């Protein structure tokens, strides 16, 4: 109950869990799923170690939560170890476990292993197909993702609303505008699945990435329900891509009323004002953030080396090998500059010698 209410009630759920003297696998799975849902991935892994130490029976729900946590942390080697354990106990082809494995390998950039996990399953349900379509979509392999969707139809596997989020994501990331529009139009008529908020968000993203801002705006205005924050954020991102500051300011105003504590809107709008050298407007956004106590949450990148995860954010100096890292980055920058200069020279020389310039 506490897990389902909202993220803030996770502490109450945890208190109840640790107050219990006897805990079966269902109890452990509930708390693992809760931690996973609120992003406490490291806690999921710690509890899983305890669960193994106490010889609690693990099942497909356990593996799904743990593998998803490996995905969130991008810990490929640990994910592979859990995969081996799943194979050992015979859960690797379970639809929930296989789906989590596909997601994990895709998130860690190993789409080949994601495909192997997909090929090892019976492929008789939408959950598995959705995961692999998402995987290829996120790796910029839109045509492969759509081929999988068509193969899914040939196999008589019924798509669900998540399938179309995956398909529309593939279209969006690969500028397949016509295909994406066709899917939106055919969802309800051909598959009996009315478009939901997330489908409209994908369609807005599709138009925005392709530079069709007016179509994105018209789609939001024609929706059968009021747009939520997700759709408005996607439209704001489209405004940023297309450089429409007037529409961006209007969308941002609505977003700030819906989610005044979310830093993303302030940051996007401030960035647009900065690009257009509208310094007074940029300063007003910064001032509003300060008045409301909103702080920008830094983005992080991470890499796993020898079973240890190294995390970084922009202009980070906290890593113990910081000096070596920046030194190497500087060398790479200089070599890239030299390579580009050399490449441009080799292109220009034949043009000049053959009088291609007026």
Automatic annotation (TrEMBL):
Positions annotated as PPR repeat: 24-58, 125-159
Record bears the keyword Repeat: yes
Protein name as annotated: Pentatricopeptide repeat-containing protein
NCBIfam families linked to this entry: PPR
Domain of life: Eukaryota
Keyword set, alphabetical order: Repeat
PANTHER family to which the protein is assigned, alphabetical: PENTATRICOPEPTIDE REPEAT-CONTAINING PROTEIN (PTHR47926)
InterPro entries the UniProt entry points to: E_motif, PPR_At4g14850-like_plant, PPR_rpt, TPR-like_helical_dom_sf
Keyword Repeat part of the UniProt annotation: yes
């Amino acid at each position: 109950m506490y897990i389902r209410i909202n993220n803030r009630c996770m502490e109450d759920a945890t208190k109840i869990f640790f107050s219990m003297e006897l805990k079966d696998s269902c109890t452990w799975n509930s708390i693992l799923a809760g931690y996973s849902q609120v992003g406490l991935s490291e806690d999921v892994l710690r509890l899983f170690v305890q669960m193994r130490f106490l010889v609690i029976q693990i099942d497909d729900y356990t593996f799904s939560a743990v593998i998803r946590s490996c995905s969130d942390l991008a810990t490929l080697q640990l994910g592979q170890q859990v995969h081996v354990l799943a194979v050992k106990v015979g859960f690797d082809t379970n639809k929930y476990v296989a789906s989590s494995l596909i997601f994990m390998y895709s998130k860690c950039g190993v789409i080949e292993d994601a495909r192997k996990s997909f090929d090892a399953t019976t492929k008789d349900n939408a959950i598995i197909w959705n995961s692999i379509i998402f995987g290829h979509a996120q790796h910029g392999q839109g045509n492969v993702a759509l081929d999988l969707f068509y193969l899914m139809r040939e196999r008589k596997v019924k798509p669900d609303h998540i399938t179309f989020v995956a398909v529309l994501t593939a279209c969006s990331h690969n500028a397949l505008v016509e295909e994406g529009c066709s899917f939106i139009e055919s969802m309800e008529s051909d598959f009996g699945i009315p478009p939901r908020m997330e489908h409209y968000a994908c369609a807005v993203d599709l138009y925005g990435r392709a530079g069709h801002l007016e179509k994105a705006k018209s789609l939001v205005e024609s929706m059968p329900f009021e747009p939520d924050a997700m759709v408005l954020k996607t439209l704001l991102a489209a405004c940023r891509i297309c450089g429409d500051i007037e529409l961006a300011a209007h969308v941002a105003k609505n977003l700030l009323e819906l989610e005044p504590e979310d830093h993303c809107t302030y940051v996007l709008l401030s960035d647009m004002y900065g690009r257009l050298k509208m310094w007074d407007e940029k300063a007003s956004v910064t001032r509003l953030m300060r008045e409301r106590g909103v702080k920008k949450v830094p983005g992080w990148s991470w890499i796993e080396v020898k079973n240890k995860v190294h995390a970084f954010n922009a202009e980070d100096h906290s890593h113990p090998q910081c000096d070596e890292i920046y030194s190497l980055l500087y060398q790479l920058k200089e070599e890239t500059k030299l390579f580009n200069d050399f490449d441009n020279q080799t292109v220009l020389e034949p043009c000049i010698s053959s009088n291609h310039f007026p």
